[in-house]
Design goal:
heterotrimer, A alpha/beta, B alpha/beta, C alpha/beta, A: 10 helices, about 20% strand, B: alpha/beta, 2 domains
Chain lengths: ~280, ~375, ~200
């Protein structure tokens, strides 16, 4: 069992890069901690982990993690990760990025990574808005909620990232929240262990930009909202259509086995190599 | 066409398309990762590499878009693999942000742009040379760029190898700026044996992984850092933010200046080595025809025709467009009466020639943007207008 | 190989600008490639070939423009062609006017009725009909044309051409392609046609 102390994961942090840039009460730290606990529990070789991020508050996480880390351009974490994984299939390649990065500007890469079923793990820090630029709406901003660019309430419908991932072909799809900090570790462990494209959406709080415009102006209220609006996937299944509209299912939404991209490509290479 | 000669002592003479020569040369230079997206007139490069790379133990992937293919190339290159993409105008525009990323983060890679007519969708199957300025200035911010422009199938082969060597030696993206004419042209080429191909590979760190290693600390005298490959234990950080030699972000003015100037200096200080060009009959020439890529062949045709008639015309075919080979023109502009710059665009290289000649000789332009090649007779007409 | 020496002894010197043109699907670009490769690989000459086609894969005019030269080829495009293989009326109409009046024209009369009357050297033969009648397929009309060109012009040798074909076509069609080349040579020889410059 993991301990609750930070001592177990401190060696996986670039402590000289701290303090981090996140606001007090931000949920990003909870996800970071859960990820490192998962690395520890899986006993992964730190030399064989590569973390790739995009642009935004959450993407700055890579600066604090003591692995090979790539802070790419906005939306492009998955293409970089794809190139890294193809060139070095033995690496554990993990993408840590926000909802604007993965669902909006990088949305095309997300669905195609899922379709290919390439063995990378994508952890989406979903704070429902663009925090770094001051609180604009994202494709995951809830209908009717406010953002600087949705001052009268959001009139667009949000993506359900888990359904999007499953529909696109991801073979491991999970959702959690920063309220479920301990369960999140379990999900990340399973996502990284899974051979194929793993998508783990984590609902996190940005009380400073998002919460304050939507009656959740403190970190505690953000966490309470997560607790009140999420139900385990098993319970979600037994709900009526009407009830389901009020909740997010959390847990493993979908898991299946399908041929993984780099393994399939390696088969071709094995047959064709030196056949010239 | 596919089969190498059975007797190695026999020269490997083939009829080959320019795009194919680019792909073959990339393999000879050690390229083992290609990511691309279908676009005319560059698709033959991807088509061939999709089948050839697995045979060489490499990887090919067709990504979901042009940006993704550029991203995948950079990811692969960060692991130490020589990587390339190929595109044309619209795709080249889409790749620009990540080309700037590669320049800043010093990620070696080769980007092939088989130029077609633009702007926008333009003329997908017709030639142009109108991406010259974009190839230098296309991404935002100040960064240097190495751009090579082949004029024949043979030169496509040679310059593709050179592009990889410059990319690895300088740790920088290099653009091979081909065009529809050169890319689609089939010509006779003698493929050199592998041992005759000079291949340069990036330096690795000279020390074992340690916590104090600074991946972006430049070496003297080439100002190129020994950046580790991902997966080799260095736990280093790559970021598109301006960074210090340790790889982490900074906004300190002196540190910002140090990085930006070093990126320029590592390339500009070796201009004489990087700037390749071909001179024909320039010694006693009164008029110089200056061009690059496919257009230089029209110029050399006119030079040849003129010399048969005793006219003192010479030619310069630029193989390196950026950094701009200003030193050639410093010398020439004092000895000739005029330079006629011939290019399939509305005036790109002529601006550079005018800038470096500083009024010492006349500089005239023949710019053609019709989606067709400049003909020798059009150059002859332009010469008549000068006299 | 002996053939190479024989061929090079009678190869015409200088720059030849050649147009091979017809409809998409007639193997025009392949014909152009075979001609250029045979000249480039089986002799000391240079060759440059530009394929020209519209966006459609079948139908429309398809053209291969070639230069064969004993010296370095600078300008790689045709200016004033002096050899043409015309496989369709559309091709004849599109490129016919550009040809030099003393140039050599090989006309596929199966698909061409109208030939500009100022040409002095027209070798006319129903290439497509011959291909169907003698070799049971219209698609080798291009090979018959190349065989005829080899016999008439000496720009390439028929034997070297057959070597090149072997490298490019699948084994199952190799025989019929070779027979088609021989048929073209035979048609040209039997006609007693001479290219008068």
């Amino acid at each position: 069992m993991q301990s609750n102390g930070l001592s177990e994961i401190k060696h996986l942090l670039r402590t000289h890069r701290l303090p981090h840039i996140w606001c007090p009460g931000c949920g990003n730290g909870i996800i970071t901690q859960a990820f490192l606990r998962a690395v520890r529990r899986l006993d992964l070789d730190p030399d064989k982990i590569c973390i790739v991020s995009g642009i935004g508050c959450s993407s700055r996480v890579v600066e604090y993690l003591d692995f090979d880390t790539v802070h790419t351009a906005h939306g492009r974490a998955i293409p970089f990760a794809t190139g890294i994984k193809i060139a070095r299939p033995e690496l554990n390649v993990v993408v840590l990025a926000g909802d604007g990065d993965i669902a909006a500007i990088g949305g095309n890469h997300f669905i195609h990574g899922a379709r290919r079923n390439i063995d990378i793990t994508v952890i989406i820090f979903n704070n429902s808005n663009y925090g770094m630029t001051g609180g604009q709406y994202s494709p995951l901003t809830l209908f009717g909620e406010k953002a600087t660019t949705a001052p009268y309430g959001m009139v667009e419908q949000p993506f359900d990232m888990c359904e999007l991932a499953r529909g696109a072909g991801a073979t491991f799809v999970a959702r959690s929240t920063t309220w479920h900090a301990k369960k999140l570790v379990d999900l990340i462990v399973q996502g990284v262990e899974h051979r194929g494209f793993s998508s783990i959406e984590v609902i996190t709080g940005c009380h400073v930009n998002y919460g304050k415009r939507n009656c959740r102006e403190t970190a505690v209220k953000m966490l309470q909202w997560q607790k009140e609006h999420s139900v385990p996937i098993e319970r979600f299944h037994s709900m009526t259509e009407e009830e389901r509209k009020k909740y997010f299912p959390v847990g493993i939404i979908h898991s299946e086995t399908r041929p993984e991209y780099t393994e399939e490509y390696a088969k071709i290479t094995r047959i064709k190599r030196d056949d010239r | 066409m596919n089969s190498a000669p059975k007797h190695p002592e026999q020269p490997d003479i083939r009829l080959m398309q320019g795009n194919r020569a680019c792909a073959e040369a990339a393999l000879a230079a050690g390229m083992r990762f290609f990511a691309g997206y279908p676009i005319t007139p560059s698709s033959e490069i991807a088509d061939f590499l999709a089948s050839a790379l697995p045979r060489h133990g490499g990887s090919f992937i067709q990504m979901e878009d042009e940006i993704a293919s550029m991203g995948a190339v950079l990811g692969a290159s960060l692991t130490g693999v020589k990587a390339m993409t190929a595109t044309s105008g619209p795709g080249f525009s889409l790749k620009q942000e990540l080309i700037g990323y590669a320049a800043l983060c010093e990620i070696p890679c080769v980007i092939v742009n088989v130029q077609r007519g633009g702007p926008s969708t333009g003329l997908p199957t017709s030639p142009a040379q109108s991406d010259v300025m974009q190839s230098k200035w296309g991404s935002h911010g100040d960064y240097p760029m190495v751009v090579l422009a082949p004029s024949s199938v043979k030169e496509t082969y040679e310059l593709t190898i050179q592009a990889f060597n410059f990319a690895e030696m300088l740790r920088t993206p290099v653009i091979l700026l081909s065009d529809e004419i050169t890319g689609h042209l089939y010509e006779k080429i003698t493929i050199p044996p592998p041992e005759a191909v000079p291949v340069i590979t990036r330096r690795s760190p000279r020390v074992a992984p340690n916590a104090s290693y600074k991946p972006y600390l430049p070496n003297e005298p080439d100002l190129v850092p020994d950046i580790p490959d991902i997966g080799t234990g260095f736990h280093f950080h790559t970021t598109g933010l301006i960074h210090t030699p340790d790889g982490f972000p900074t906004r300190e003015p002196e540190e910002v200046r140090a990085l930006i100037t070093r990126l320029h200096d590592k390339i500009n200080s070796r201009k004489h080595e990087i700037c390749l060009y071909e001179e024909r009959n320039t010694g006693d020439a009164e008029l110089i025809l200056c061009s690059f890529g496919a257009s230089s062949r029209s110029c050399f045709q006119v030079v040849e025709d003129a010399r048969k008639e005793g006219r003192k015309i010479g030619g310069i075919g630029l193989k390196t467009l950026w950094p701009f080979p200003d030193f050639i023109f410093h010398k020439l502009s004092s000895s000739v009466k005029a330079i006629l710059v011939c290019e399939m665009n509305c005036g790109h290289i002529i601006g550079e020639v005018e800038r470096v000649c500083e009024g010492r000789c006349r500089v005239e332009g023949l710019g053609k943007c019709t989606g067709t090649m400049i003909t020798p007779s059009e150059i002859e007409n332009a010469i008549k207008r000068i006299k | 190989m002996t053939d190479k020496n024989q061929a090079s002894s009678k190869v015409p010197e200088g720059r030849f600008e050649i147009v091979v043109s017809g409809s998409g699907g007639q193997g025009i670009i392949l014909g152009g490639k075979l001609l250029a490769e045979t000249a480039a690989v089986h002799s000391n000459r240079q060759a440059a070939m530009t394929p020209c086609y519209g966006p459609e894969v079948r139908g429309g005019v398809s053209t291969a423009e070639l230069i064969i030269d004993s010296a370095t080829i600078n300008y790689p495009k045709i200016i004033r062609p002096n050899v043409m293989i015309a496989m369709s009326q559309q091709a004849m109409d599109k490129y016919g006017q550009a040809l030099e009046s003393h140039g050599l024209v090989i006309v596929n009369t199966s698909l061409i009725d109208i030939v500009p009357d100022h040409f002095r050297n027209v070798f006319a033969a129903p290439l497509t009909s011959v291909a169907i009648k003698e070799l049971n397929t219209p698609v080798v009309a291009n090979m018959i044309a190349l065989g005829a060109l080899a016999a008439i012009s000496g720009l390439i040798s028929a034997e070297a051409l057959k070597h090149t074909i072997k490298k490019h076509v699948p084994a199952k069609v190799l025989d019929v392609d070779r027979q088609a080349v021989d048929k073209g040579v035979e048609l040209a020889r039997e006609s007693g046609f001479l290219w008068r410059l």
